[in-house]
Amino acid sequence: MYLTFSKTNGSTYVYIREYVGRQAFKTTTERTLAGLGRVEVAMMKIAFWKAHESLVPEELKNKGVTITELNEFEKKIQEKTKGMLLAI
């Protein structure tokens, strides 16, 4: 699992994705597990999931997401957005 970032109309969006490898008749080698929304919303969701672990989406629980991984995701978002003004 890893994070990807997509910039659209001046906003940066965050996604949790996983590598699935080559699939027959498909060009996609990864799939989105969760769209976290804009950076500000993504940070709030991760903080919320860390505080309320039982509310982590089932798709992520089934993939074995831990608090440690959520902390790593949070750090990566902070690194990516360093210097950006976040309006929360």
What structural keywords apply?
88 residues; alpha+beta; three-stranded antiparallel sheet; 3 strands; globular
The DSSP helix count reads 3
Number of strand elements: 3
Kindly name the structural category.
alpha+beta
Q: Please state the average pLDDT score.
A: 87
Percent helix among the residues?
Answer: 25-40%
Structure notes:
The chain has a three-stranded antiparallel β-sheet, covered by helices on one side. The protein has helices spanning 39-51, 58-62, 67-80, and strands at 2-8, 11-19, 30-38. It contains three helices and three strands, in the order βββααα. The chain is an alpha+beta fold. The mean pLDDT is 87.
Task: Summarize the structure in short.
The chain has 3 helices and 3 strands; from the N terminus they run E-E-E-H-H-H. The protein is of the alpha+beta class and 88 residues long.
